[in-house]
Fold this protein.
Amino acid sequence: MRHNGRTPLKASTMRPEHLSLRENEPRLVVCPDCDTWHRLQRSMILPHRNGVPAERTGRRYLGDKPSGGRRCPGSAQRIAIDISVEEWTERLLEAETTAAGRRTARPIRKPRPQPTPAPVQMPAATRPLREQLDDHLQSDCPHCRAGRCAHVIELRQRIRRTTQIVAAPLTPIYGQIRTALREHRASCAPCGSGVSCDAGRNLAAREHLARTA
C-alpha cells in the first residue's frame, strides 16, 4: 500500500476522540475526509470508499460494480503516532469532561471531597496540594458546580505529576493509571453515582492488570 502523497498527520494535533490507541487493540483513526473510523496499517489509513456514488464512465466491469461509492481521498493517509498511550488517555479524559460540561445546562452536583489519605499513605510532596484541593472542593465554587473549574484541574494535574515523580522508581504505569482513574471518577457523573462508563471500566481493568503484574 502506497501513501496518498499528503503530508503525514501528527496524532498530537488530532482530536483525542478521533483516535483509539488502547493497548492490545488495533489502532483506529477517524478519516479526515469522510469522518469514519478505519484501522491503521503501517501507520496509514486502510483504503476505503466514502459512500459517494461514483460517476459512470466508459470503463466496463467484469463483475458487479464496487459498492460504497468512490475511493476516499483519505485512503492511505499517513498518521505519525507521536504521543504515548498515557498522554492520549489523559487528553481523552479531559475532552470527555469538557464535553460533558457543555452538553448540559442544568447544574451538576458538587463532587464529594475525597477522603484524605493517612499521613503514612500520602506522599509528603503532594500533601499541601491535596489540602488545597480539599479546601477548594468544600467551598461554594460556582465553577465546580458547572463542572468547569480550572483551579481544580490545575491542582489535580500538579498532584498527578508529583505523584508520578515520587512513584516512578516503583510502579510508574500503575501510578499513572490509578491517578487517571481517580480523576475520572471524580469528574464523571455516571462513575460518581456508581454506574461506570466505558472509559471508567477500561481504566479500572487496566489498573487491575497493572496492580497484579
About this structure: The longest strand covers residues 37-41. The CA atoms of residues 45 and 140 lie 48 Å apart. The chain has a mean pLDDT of 76. Residues 1-53+61-83 form one domain.
